[in-house]
Structure formats: C-alpha cells, structure tokens
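Design request, tokens follow.
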C-alpha cells in the first residue's frame, strides 16, 4: 500500500477522457498530472488524484459489465462559498444535478462530469 503522505486516488470511468480533463481542470480547480488520452489521464487537486479511465484503459477493462455505469459514489470537494461556486458553474453552462441540501454539517449540491460521475460541492456549517 502507499504511504499516508501520498495522494489518495479515486478512479472514475469516463466516456471521453479529454472532456473529463477539460471539466475537472476548467471547472473544479484540478491540474493535469499525466495524460495518455484517449485511454487514461489523471488530474490532481490537493491530496486527491483522480484517475480518469476511458474504455481502452486497463482500469475500465477490468470492470465487470454490470458495474460499468457511473455509481452512486462521489468525490466530495469542500468550498468556502457554495452560492458563489453555484453561480460560477451555472455561468459556465454547467447544470446541477440536485437542489442545495442543508443539514447540521453544512450545505451541499451535486453536479456530474461529462460521463455522469457525481461530484459533491460542500460548504461546512459555521462553527460556534
């Protein structure tokens, strides 16, 4: 296993690696780490390394057919001003997949990448 000082990696299966790179780098502040498009790329944001696997990648080929569609899991990105992020994304033509949901821990909204994988934007509640 990797050490605790290395990236935490999450793999998303995507239909179009270039579109996924553009989405994550343009709209969510990720930086391109490596690209072997159209098969694979990885983007990073802080300690998160997001593996974007196209149909030709070994990660996608290892996936059973009954689990090949986007799942109910999602990456969780913390933001300081959820309303400003929503306004910025809508101005860029990005559709939200949920209404804003508020709870005791904070507020959140979902959007989807071009392949339908979910991303949660979360603003923690103010602490007393």
């Amino acid at each position: 296993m990797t050490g605790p000082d290395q990236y935490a990696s999450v793999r998303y299966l995507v239909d179009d690696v270039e579109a996924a790179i553009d989405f994550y780098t343009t709209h969510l502040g990720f930086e391109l780490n490596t690209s072997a498009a159209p098969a694979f790329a990885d983007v990073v944001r802080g300690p998160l390394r997001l593996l974007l696997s196209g149909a030709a990648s070994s990660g996608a080929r290892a996936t059973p057919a009954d689990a090949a569609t986007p799942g109910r899991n999602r990456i969780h990105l913390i933001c300081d001003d959820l309303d400003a992020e929503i306004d910025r994304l809508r101005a860029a033509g990005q559709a939200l997949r949920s209404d804003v949901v508020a709870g005791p821990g904070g507020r959140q909204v979902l959007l989807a990448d071009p392949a339908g994988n979910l991303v949660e934007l979360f603003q923690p509640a103010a602490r007393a």
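Comment from the thread starter after seeing the answer: thanks! The two ends are 38 Å apart (CA to CA).
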